[in-house]
Amino acid sequence: MKTLKMLLIVSTIAIYAITALASLTQGLNWPAVAIADLLALGWRSQFDIDFLIHLFLLATWVTWREGAGPRAYFFGFLSIIMGGMFSFPYILFAAYKSGGESKALLLGVHARP
Fold first, then answer.
1. Cβ(94)–Cβ(108) under 8 Å?
2. CA proximity to 6, closest of 97, 103, 104, 95
3. Closest residue by Cα to residue 81 from 106, 55, 61, 63
4. How many CB atoms lie within 10 A of CB 31?
5. What is the distance between the alpha carbons of residues 56 and 49, in angstroms, rounded to a whole number?
6. Residues 58, 64, 66, 68, CA torsion sign
7. Mean pLDDT, rounded, of the chain
8. In a 10 Å sphere around its CB, with 0-12 CB exposed, 13-18 middle and 19+ buried, how is residue 79 labelled?
9. Per-residue pLDDT tens for 50-77?
10. Can you tell me whether residue 40 is helix, strand or coil?
11. What is the mean pLDDT of residues 29-55?
12. Fewest beta carbons less than 10 Å away: which of 100, 107, 110, 112?
């Protein structure tokens, strides 16, 4: 669990740094870049579609893990829109909250004490 937490900390710092650099160099209009990449039907399209599918699967898990209430759907939405900028800190917080138990981390509100 320590390795996972460390990886999540490093990943969070990295994704925020890369996002800041991309925003400064290419602007904030990321939807235009993403849509252009998707419509190009090349390797970037393949990567982006694969990534989108992963984001939807992650959002489904987050929503289920949180108990499918308003907060859960909001967290699922953030998982899709923000990707790792939301999900890395979310999983890190969940790992700390689980007390090192994998079952509690994976199942969330569905874990039985």
1. yes
2. 95
3. 55
4. 8
5. 11
6. positive
7. 91
8. buried
9. 999 999 999 999 999 999 999 999 999 9
10. coil
11. 89
12. 112
Segment 18-42 shows an average pLDDT of: 89
State the Cα–Cα distance between residues 41 and 49, nearest whole angstrom.
10
Residue tagged 């917080």 (tokens): 93
> Is 107 exposed, middle or buried (CB count within 10 Å of its CB: 0-12, 13-18, 19+)?
middle
Paired tokens of 31: 């939807």
Tokens 């969330």 belong to 108
Please name the residue that has the structure tokens 């489904």. Answer: 60
d(CA 100, CA 18): 29
Tokens coding 22: 């991309």
Could you tell me the two tokens for 9? 């900390």
Contact 60, 39 (CB under 8 A): no
Tokens of 73: 């759907």
